[in-house]
Specification:
heterodimer, A: mainly alpha, 64% helix, 0% strand, elongated, B: alpha+beta, nine-stranded mixed β-sheet, 17 strands, 13% strand, globular
Chain lengths: 207, 536
């Protein structure tokens, strides 16, 4: 059976470089926040800003890619099978039921994923970007008519959004290990190919 | 052929470079301050001179306006009407946390007046032109030394200074000194400004004799290995009026680089030369609106090996040895820790400043001002500024602390009569506070109930000298940290220092719950899977 590529080369590049940048931004960000000493404050700020610009650049590419390929539709929320997926994570995964959703190139994400990623894209990221850019251009607020802002408000929003990001990542990473085996969901994100139907079961039985 | 041309070209450039560099060298060999007058040739300066005022008379023959210029300057009047607060300040009026006030101690304190014979603070300084002291600022020989207690005069006959020390101060050769006058150098300014408060480094902490020949690490501007500035290079002086003030400090220079004809002709601010964007890194430039240059670039004061006084407790003065003689005690670093005439001291080297919002305006607690004795320490001076004040920046300060006498009934600081040249009315001869305070307040005309106590005091001294090399400037985390140097600074959010505790608690709590939930979920799945396998 011919395998079909689920995650395109750009998509994978985008996902993993974004993941790396976000881990790095969280690391430097919480140092700036004063939680530990790793790079030193000044170095952390400069690295954080550089990584943020890289991530913004990556997002510009990704947004372009999503619109030109029509892939943005992957994140449209749906209630179809939503209940079933939730029931699977709450109950089915313990009783040995099989996952109610099977990804295809037309629907790469299960309905819960769609909601989570939409939350990531429409809530967490905009909060982080807007507050982060304001933070970065703090000295120009007066000039652009934002003089009424207080640095602490922006800092709080940025910190709050960082916590949302951290929580998203914890859940995302954990759920990524919930396939047939720990790595069965992560592998397609690396190779691009979904293992053939039944392949995982066979792999599971070999153990 | 091409090779030849190339070589020819190189030869031409090498020659040109040699010509250019040699002419540049020739220029550098000129005197840094080439005067158009050789004072040694002046007949009027051949002497002999019997006194300082005689020398001044000779100076004024040519420099006809000099005395009048001096007499209008703060160095002469010791009087400053503060344009913002309206307070009458200047040494004639203020009190400090060192020897208190000039009043009643004149002949000693006025040894640092740029004149001769000012013996009564209640009167303005003597009016005659020859009472101006030219030599104290223009001596280039280092030989012109004033007596510590002669109202500004040097020794005219050999004298033991201090009395009983066995060290004889010889009269300086006034004519020779007069023939070698020149621009004011560091030692001229330093003679008074390095020794304020009674000895080297005592008062300011950022001004002491280590600045006469400082290492590059101590002061990039004054070090011979740095810019090799004299004081006057920054404290630009016009008509004998020197720029720079501790009463109304230019805490935020809004004029920037000092361009002749466009600005205030004062280089007594960092911005006068360095402008508003002195750093290559933009993020650092974004600090200069709220953080004074001094805050990062003077990581500590008293760095030159001279200790500064940080605590002076006058209440313990007067304790004598078993032999009835005054005693001197030293701390573990060899600094004086007790003197019968002055009380207990703490000294410090490499002192980390305190940081405060400061817009340049300084208020003083004057003789007549009521103290808030309920809430010591009493502030000898207070500084204006807050985060909400756009003219204020975060500045480093030496905060001098100690205990000083005050009137328990009138609730005022008291004029302390510590020095008297000819009777035993003063503390340093009688070791008797009641007598000294009675005499001091009488001399000053200050109301005094006779009921005195000692109260803790604090005095703010902005730190601005001893600028370290850029590499020694504070690291970001010196302030961007929870217990950093700016932990006392209010009204501003400092990343790394400040957190919304609630938000952090919620954030970490939620993250922990999600992590714990995931681990529990994973554990449950493993257990369920194992059970299923067993039942199969």
């Amino acid at each position: 059976m011919k395998q079909e590529m689920v995650f395109k080369r750009f998509e994978r590049f985008w996902h993993w470089s974004q993941a790396a940048l976000i881990f790095f931004l969280l690391t430097t960000g919480f140092e700036i926040h004063g939680n530990y000493h790793l790079f030193g404050f000044g170095q952390a700020v400069s690295l954080h800003a550089t990584a943020a610009w890289l991530l913004i650049g990556l997002w510009v590419l990704a947004i372009f890619w999503h619109f030109t390929t029509g892939e943005w539709r992957q994140y449209l929320p749906t209630t179809d099978k939503l209940g079933a997926v939730m029931y699977y994570y709450a109950v089915g995964t313990f009783t040995g039921a099989s996952h109610p959703f099977r990804k295809t190139t037309q629907a790469k994400h299960n309905p819960l994923q769609r909601l989570a990623y939409l939350w990531f894209k429409l809530m967490i990221s905009p909060l982080i970007w807007i507050s982060g850019l304001l933070y970065l251009f703090y000295n120009d607020w007066e000039a652009v008519g934002l003089g009424f802002l207080q640095l602490e408000w922006v800092a709080w929003v940025h910190t709050g959004a960082a916590f949302l990001m951290l929580i998203f990542i914890i859940a995302h990473v954990y759920m990524a290990t919930m396939g047939k085996t720990v790595f069965s969901l992560i592998k397609p994100m690396i190779t691009g190919y979904e293992p053939p139907e039944g392949g995982e079961e066979a792999a599971g039985q070999r153990k | 052929m091409h090779g030849m041309t190339f070589r020819g070209c190189m030869g031409f450039w090498a020659l040109l470079m040699m010509v250019l560099t040699s002419s540049a060298n020739a220029q550098l060999q000129l005197e840094p301050n080439p005067s158009t007058a050789d004072h040694s040739q002046f007949k009027s300066l051949q002497g002999p001179f019997d006194s300082g005022p005689e020398v001044t008379e000779a100076c004024l023959k040519c420099h006809t306006e000099a005395a009048e210029q001096i007499q209008q300057s703060l160095h002469w009047t010791w009087e400053y009407e503060h344009p913002v607060t309206g307070q009458m300040l200047g040494k004639r009026h203020v009190m400090n946390s060192f020897c208190g006030s000039v009043t009643s101690n004149e002949p000693r304190c006025t040894s640092c007046h740029v004149g001769y014979d000012w013996k009564d603070m209640k009167q303005p300084p003597p009016q005659a032109g020859n009472k101006v002291d030219c030599l104290v600022c223009h001596d280039t020989t280092g030989q012109y030394t004033k007596l510590p207690d002669a109202a500004g005069h040097p020794a005219y006959t050999p004298r033991e200074v201090p009395a009983g020390s066995g060290v004889t101060q010889l009269p300086p050769d006034l004519a020779s000194i007069a023939r070698q006058v020149g621009n004011s150098g560091r030692t001229n300014c330093g003679a008074c400004h390095f020794s304020g408060g009674g000895a080297d480094g005592v008062k300011h902490g950022d001004l002491d004799s280590s600045l006469i020949n400082p290492a590059h690490a101590l002061d990039v501007h004054m070090s011979p290995d740095g810019a090799d500035f004299t004081c006057a290079d920054c404290h630009t002086t016009t008509a004998h009026s020197v720029t720079g003030s501790r009463y109304l400090t230019n805490a935020r220079d809004s004029l920037g680089v000092d361009v002749p004809g466009h600005t205030d002709m004062s280089r007594a601010s960092c911005e006068s030369c360095h402008g508003f964007t002195p750093h290559a890194e933009q993020k650092l430039n974004e600090h200069v609106d709220r953080v004074a240059c001094q805050t990062c670039h003077i990581p500590a004061f008293a760095r030159g090996g001279v200790a500064t006084k940080t605590w002076w407790d006058w209440s313990t003065a007067g304790r004598l040895g078993e032999d009835g003689k005054p005693i001197t005690e030293y701390d573990e670093n060899g600094h004086v820790s007790y003197l019968s005439i002055k009380g207990n001291f703490h000294h410090g080297e490499n002192v980390v400043p305190k940081y405060r919002w400061f817009n340049g305006v300084v208020h003083y607690t004057l003789q007549s001002d009521k103290l808030d004795t309920e809430h010591p320490p009493v502030q000898i001076n207070t500084i204006d500024g807050s985060a909400a004040d756009p003219d204020a920046r975060i500045w480093p300060f030496k905060i001098m602390q100690g205990k000083q006498p005050y009137d328990r009934v009138n609730q005022t600081l008291l004029v302390t009569h510590v020095f008297s040249p000819d009777d035993d009315s003063a503390l340093w001869s009688n070791f008797d506070w009641p007598k000294a305070l009675k005499a001091g307040t009488e001399r000053a005309g200050q109301p005094y109930s006779g009921d005195f106590g000692f109260i803790e005091t604090e005095m703010h001294w902005p730190v601005t000298h001893m600028v370290a090399p850029a590499g020694d400037a504070l690291e970001c985390q010196a302030c961007h940290a929870e217990d950093g140097r700016l932990s006392d600074i209010e009204g501003i959010y400092i990343p790394g220092r400040d957190k919304a505790v609630m938000l952090d608690t919620l954030g970490w709590g939620a993250a922990f719950l999600v992590l714990a939930g995931s681990l529990l979920h994973a554990g449950g799945r493993i257990v369920a899977k194992t059970r299923r396998r067993k039942t199969k």
